Amino acid sequence: MRLLYDTFFLIFGLLYVPYLLFKRKLHKDFSQRFGCLPDSVTSISKPVWIHAVSVGEARLAVKLASGIKKRFPDHQIVISTTTETGMSVARSAVGDAVDAVFYSPLDVSGIVSGIVRRVNPVLYVMVETELWPNLLGALHEKKVPMIVINGRISDRSFRNYKRIGLVMRRVLKQVDLYCVQSEKDARRITELGAEPRSVCVTGSMKFDGEESAGIDIAQLKKDMGFGAMDRVIVAGSTHFPEEQEIIDVYQKLKKKHHDLKLVLAPRHVERVDAIEIYSSKSGSKHRRFSDINTGIPVDIVIVDTIGHLKDIYAIATVIFVGGSLARKGGQNPIEGARLGKPVIFGPHMFNFREIADIFLDADAALTVHDKDGLFRMFDELLLDEPRRELLGRNAGRIVRENKGAIGRTLNRVEGFLS
């Protein structure tokens, strides 16, 4: 079984390189995925190794690293990520909470066994159920404790994992502790094969994000080319074809709400060129976020930078959560809700189903099913300020009530480091 898995993954890795070349995504550090680690990692003795995939998970990894450093200042911490955007977040913490970063290895036994030997971690932490069989097997052979934090099992993952039940059962039993987001996640991961005594519910760490401090809303609106009294729709972490649908909806709304502006923040910033083309065809005046401060009025701002969306949410009248009209699983609705903003998302929130349900059940968010529904919902909320305020108050309350997962998770991790 391992030989078959290795062969498949190695072929995948080799074919992945030409694909990245074609897409112009092959970065200079890609060799790290084949085991070529930087000296900054291998020179560290017995670090805590935290693995995260992309931006959201990397932010949680940095928060956990900060908590560990406060409680155990002598422990060194390395973070591995899969994506360039995740790496950018991890690198921003180097020298503070994080001692070194690197790209996660391809899950080929020969590669991961060498990486485990060279990193030689005292503890391995996975953010949100990143289960790689060969890597976990190599760590298990070295008797390295393994923890999952902020764990969740989406509907899709649950179905897929059940298809390979025997493999998953063997892998899951190797992990020492699962800190999961909900009772539903606990039931699912236990059904898949995790030892019940190793599973605990600590809640979602994403509720514990920091408030946006010191945002001058009037100045930010002015910099973006909006008027002080303009109302703003912010569409965050959008995917294709959501941007086109939202621009169409915006053009229709603009005929009725003349003071309305739009901010589009695509999930993948490399798609900004295509969004600009569509915006130009629609007749709207637009500008990239990196080109603000010109003072020239515009209708649409397209965010082409990483890390600014949570601050941009502060100017929103209404927020749309991307990846939810397109069948991408949605994105985290908490950042906008934390600011007391009314939040709308589509029907495809399966990557954040538990969080979405919490908001919907508390009348703290609204859901739509298509482009026409999005238009109607925007229109209704723009006409109904008391309704917007009620949704925003409920959203802020839900975030406050669900805080504390990071502290509960750190208490569990502490038992492995004391």
Describe the structure.
The structure is a single chain. With 418 residues, the protein is an alpha/beta fold. 45% of the residues lie in helices and 15% in strands. It has 18 helices and 14 strands. It has helices at residues 2-22, 39-42, 55-71, 84-91, 109-119, 133-141, 155-163, 165-172, 183-192, 217-223, 242-254, 272-282, 309-312, 334-338, 353-361, 371-383, 385-401, 405-417; strands at 48-51, 77-81, 100-103, 123-127, 146-151, 177-180, 199-201, 231-238, 260-266, 286-288, 300-302, 318-321, 343-345, 366-367. Helix 5 crosses helix 6, helix 11 (242-254) runs parallel beside helix 12 (272-282) and helix 11 packs across helix 16 (371-383). The longest helix has 21 residues, at 2-22. The model has no long low-confidence stretch (mean pLDDT 90).
Fold blueprint:
Elements: H1 2-22, H2 39-42, E1 48-51, H3 55-71, E2 77-81, H4 84-91, E3 100-103, H5 109-119, E4 123-127, H6 133-141, E5 146-151, H7 155-163, H8 165-172, E6 177-180, H9 183-192, E7 199-201, H10 217-223, E8 231-238, H11 242-254, E9 260-266, H12 272-282, E10 286-288, E11 300-302, H13 309-312, E12 318-321, H14 334-338, E13 343-345, H15 353-361, E14 366-367, H16 371-383, H17 385-401, H18 405-417
Parallel strand pairs: 1-2, 1-4, 2-3, 4-5, 5-6, 6-7, 8-9, 8-12, 9-11, 10-11, 12-13, 13-14
Helix pairs in contact: 3-4, 3-18, 5-6, 11-12, 11-16
Short description:
Helices cover 45% and strands 15% of the residues.
CATH topology of the largest domain: Rossmann fold
Helix/strand/pairing category: alpha/beta
Alpha-carbon Rg, integer: 22 Å
Distance linking N and C termini = 37 Å
DSSP summary: helix tally: 18
The total strand number stands at 14
Helix content: 40-55%
Unreliable residue stretches: none
Strand order, biggest sheet? 3-2-1-4-5-6-7
Spatial shape: globular
CATH superfamily of the largest domain: 3-Deoxy-D-manno-octulosonic-acid transferase, N-terminal domain
* Beta-strand share of residues: 5-15%
Number of domains: 2
Biggest β-sheet strands, sense, barrel: 7 strands, parallel
Name given to the CATH architecture of the largest domain: 3-Layer(aba) Sandwich
- Class of the largest domain, according to the CATH hierarchy? Alpha Beta
Average pLDDT over all residues = 90
